[in-house]
Amino acid sequence: MIIGHGKEKDIFRNILTGDKLHHAYIFSGREGSGKKMFARELARAVICAEQVFMEPCQCRHCKVAAASDHPDIHVLEESPVKIEVARRIAGDAFMSPLSARKKVYIIDNAHTFTKEAANAILKTLEEPPADTHFFLITDKYEQVLPTIRSRCINMRFSNLTNEEVEKVLLSQGVMNDMLPEIAAQASGSVSYAMFLLDNAEETGRFAPDRDKNSLFAEIHGLDTKEKIRAYCASMYAYMLVKYKESEDETLLDFSNYLLEILRRLEYNVSLDMFRMDLFIKTTEVLCEKS
Ligand SMILES: [Zn+2]
């Protein structure tokens, strides 16, 4: 079941009912908002013998699609998308579907097509055989090559609401007391919520009364963006727990500061400046006031 995306469901329900599915779409929108899952569900509806959309179906194609990979739904998750892959798709696209009436290509990371790969597939994207559909997925639409953009209809997916993120996590069996808080901070991204949750696990090192020198060494050892992200995310989760226990507003302010850091890290920034800033703020909270 696809949680959220009511607007997109309505649009494609109408398109399928009217048999008006275009041959190439780009599904763009926030990372972790469920675009690829939606594309898979849409692909299933396209090959379904009964054209059932967003509902369970027992036709032979849907059974195969539910159990494993259907031979007429091709999911490509390469990054970057290179010329060999593009050539293969362009060649395969002109063969008949193997078992259903139609076939679908779901191509993830559409913003990573190399120029050569794009050139190899442009003609196919523009005029594929009538039984072929392309769903390209990206969370960076502005980076998709203009030659590809101009041949596809862009469907901008809305972000999931906090409640929807929480529902998706629950449906995936995630159990955590912090779920509502984490979901609220994930700004519509299930994968980002998972990232915050994963890092909430190892939080022992943020116990109070840290020694300044060891804290300094620790923070300056965070030599990549990813390490800073993981560090701030787990410290964030820890501070949130401590705030719930103590209702100390300083901790709430500090967790908000950490979230702000996580947001700013999405842009190109000087890591040196970040580490220094983080060290100063962290010292104020974790080290004994002297
Ligand atoms: Zn079916």
From TrEMBL:
Keywords: DNA-directed DNA polymerase, Nucleotidyltransferase, Transferase. It holds the Pfam family DNA_pol3_delta2. It comes from the Bacteria. GO terms for biological process: DNA-templated DNA replication. Its EC number is 2.7.7.7. One of its GO terms (molecular function) is DNA-directed DNA polymerase activity. This is DNA-directed DNA polymerase. It comes from Denitrovibrio acetiphilus (strain DSM 12809 / NBRC 114555 / N2460). The lineage of its organism: Bacteria, Pseudomonadati, Deferribacterota, Deferribacteres, Deferribacterales.
